[in-house]
Amino acid sequence: MNSLQLAAWTWKMPRRGRGFWFSLVIDLLWPFVVLFVRLRVRGRHHVPGDGGVILAFNHLSNADSVAAVVFALMSNRVPRVLAKAALWRTPVFGWAMRSGGHIPVERGTVKASEALRPAVEALRAGECVMVFPEGTFTDDPGNWPMKGKSGVARMALESRVPVVPVAEWGTQDLLPRGAVLPRLLPRKRVEVVAGAPVDLSDLYDLEMTAEVLEEATSRVMDAITTMLSGIRSARTGSQRA
Q1: What whole-number distance in Å separates Cα of residue 84 and Cα of residue 93?
Q2: Res 3 pLDDT > 90
Q3: How far apart, in whole angstroms, are the C-alpha atoms of residue 164 and residue 69?
Q4: Taking the C-alpha atoms of 106, 109, 111 and 114 in order, what is their torsion angle to the nearest 10 degrees?
Q5: Could you report the per-residue pLDDT of 177-202, keeping only the tens digit for each?
Q6: What residues contact residue 45 under an 8 Å CB cut-off, 6+ apart?
């Protein structure tokens, strides 16, 4: 997608329900995406146009959130993001997170699971909820997804909404882990690809045991990994061993 095509999406993406500050951050970041990112988005047809849906992404970089929000908006959905609660305590991002109706997660505490309640409520109300099931950047040496945490499975099984697996690649070049400023030049190629919703229907009526949660989580992470393998294979011939 060239810069002109990407710029045209400014007027196509949904605005209602974004909140003033969240919408302002999107509008401020969008020119940087247009000018400095060679963005390729595929699989948007897998995202339902209405009703509750979970978009589950792999996690490589702090730039993932920007690419994931762009993907959701280009899929005509305004996302509610599960993100670390520390963002709510920062001057600018805190305003954006509250304005956008996003959902804070107190990572590494007993309160972490409390974020699932508002997430499930949002899903049942027909919202699009965006999540990174790994909970942090992957520590895999080859940048493959790690084992996911059970939150995505709990949300999916309680709400019974589709879980769309989405793979991102190239964000780690745009904003490497540990970097404060993005590497804008030369323009980085970022790909975001969604697959068909993960079938969890056979697990809906089962007791939500550790085994059931692990099975649901594994299906989601396997689907994300499959999508990522396709991107990387097409680019470099790199396949997961």
Answers
A1: 11
A2: no
A3: 14
A4: 70
A5: 889 899 999 999 999 999 999 999 99
A6: none
- Domains of the chain with bracketed CATH: 3-174+183-234 (3.40.1130.10)
Percent of the chain with pLDDT over 70: 95
Query: Which of 87, 84, 75, 104 has its CA nearest to residue 25?
Result: 87
Alpha carbon distances (Å) from 192 to 58, 71, 123, 224:
10, 7, 23, 11
pTM of the predicted protein model: 0.92
Pairing of strands 163-169, 188-194: antiparallel
Q: Which long-range contacts (CB under 8 A, 24 or more apart) does 210-214 make?
A: 212/153, 212/157, 213/150, 213/153, 213/154, 213/157, 214/150, 214/153
